[in-house]
Amino acid sequence: MGPVPAWLKLGGWLLPPLLAACLAYPLGLRHGAESWRARLAEQRAADQGRQAAEAERAQLQLQAALQQQQRLRELLGRQEARLLSQQQDLQQRLRDQKQRIEYVVQQDGGRYGGLGPDSLRLYRQVLGYSAAAVPATDSVSIANPHQAASAGAGLPAADLLAHAADYGAWCQQLEQRLTALGGLFTSEGPQP
């Protein structure tokens, strides 16, 4: 046999690395794909974990908000019921005061040119003041006509007392509403 051509020598040297490359490339490709799949699965699992944690946190916040809303509804319901009860009591007191006005005006009778002592006491009471401070002799008796005021000088006692009762009821209603509104922001009410 003769000398071996150079290309065959070169082919003998190149053939094993080429065969090894042809066999190793698919193995490397598969290994790389598996490695990327594993990394992608890890990333997906981490994302799902974060999403689950965020969903759980949002759920807890929603539950807390719903509980706060329920507490506020209950507080508002209690305040509303209390205010309604107070308004009903106030209306009853106003009706009672109007009946007392008629009685007091009859008690004072025509002896006084304006508010008699009983009328003046009631006037002070319906405005929320003490009636005890008014002595029975504070009014002018019309037994002496020159001391009595003329009819055009003022309002009849019944009208003055009716006004005092309405005004007193209005003031008390405002006070009750303000108290009820203030109750929403006390220790019973919402906390920031």
Number of helices: 3
Share of helix among residues?
over 70%
DSSP E strands, number: 0
Shape: rod-shaped
Largest pleated sheet: none
Strand content: under 5%
Query: Runs with pLDDT <50, length 5+?
Result: 136-142, 148-154
How much is the average pLDDT?
79
Succession of helices and strands: HHH
Number of domains: 1
Which value, in Å, is the CA radius of gyration? Answer: 48 Å
Straight-line N-to-C gap: 101 Å
**Broad structural category:** mainly alpha
Organism: Chromobacterium fluminis
Protein name: Lipoprotein
Transmembrane segments: 6-29
Coiled coil: 38-100
Blueprint (SSEs and pairs):
Layout: H1 6-108, H2 117-126, H3 157-183
Helix pairs in contact: 1-2, 1-3, 2-3
